[in-house]
Amino acid sequence: MWLALVFAFILYKVLRLFFGDDDVLDVETSDFNALFAVSARLEKLYGGKVYVGLRIPDADCASPQNIDLVLLTKREAVVICVKNLAGFVSVNPDGSWVCISERKHKEEHHEDPVAEARRQVAVLESYLEQRGVALPEGYLSYKVITSNPKFRALNPDSFPPEVIQYDQWVLMKPESKSMLSGWIKGAFSTAKNEVQDSKYQQLHSVLSTAPMWDRVELRGSKYVLGEFLEFKGKHDDIQLLQYIKRSKVDRVIVQKTSMFGLAPTRLQVLYSFRDFRNEGASASEWKEVTVRSSTDVLFQPHNSKKVCKFKLSTVTSLTLSA
């Protein structure tokens, strides 16, 4: 009995050594994954570009306004609040939502997401004006998308028209290219004129350099938004990684060096130096170092008080906001 327990403990330690820390399991990534899933589908069906995890300065409060998604096309910019709720959801008279979880069998109360998205529009519009972008009237709008397949609307007609319920979300398809709208009728605006190319590019430039949450992509296409803190590990590895700071680097890619599926002991880390003159980094701007796979990435997830520690072997990429 004791020998079996000792063997199981040793096996557990070996698996953690080669396949990463348990923090990847402790972090609730589903809400973050929902953002990127909605973002990918918006770009596929609607076109344009979606910016994820914005942190826009708010003059009315000390902390920035967090915005889930901003969809940008020549015809409109849409602030999108994503609600990854699972359970029976109803709307209170004051606009707030109540979700009765099927699994936890308890009530969860959520502030009015439509009012939240409306506030985010005002903050974003003020920020764009401060950066020299004056938007045409009606160009900026807002929507709330319920992205979880386990979302169950109690009295669906009570939800405001700005809310795209899950049953509507999964049925959305692009219309004919001859039509003005890229979405099914009524989902998004359908009678807007395109902005000039110069203003459209200006909007992209402003949003691409706006404050955002850092993001770490984990194996299995799992995402976590938050703040990158530092690397932890052997001294020689940390020396090689010392230049990866948000003031210098915007993108980090981790590549495995093992063959035939064996767990790697060392990893190739590629990083690109930040260049505000261009949107992306050219091949010549990428630097490469090789470090131990046991090196840790310390990351503070958004809406969490816990600092998570991810083994570098579990990380696919790291994106740092300016």
TrEMBL record:
<feature type="domain" description="NERD">
    <location>
        <begin position="30"/>
        <end position="147"/>
    </location>
</feature>
<feature type="signal peptide">
    <location>
        <begin position="1"/>
        <end position="16"/>
    </location>
</feature>
<protein>
    <recommendedName>
        <fullName>NERD domain-containing protein</fullName>
    </recommendedName>
</protein>
<dbReference type="Pfam" id="PF08378">
    <property type="entry name" value="NERD"/>
</dbReference>
<keyword id="KW-0732">Signal</keyword>
<dbReference type="InterPro" id="IPR011528">
    <property type="entry name" value="NERD"/>
</dbReference>
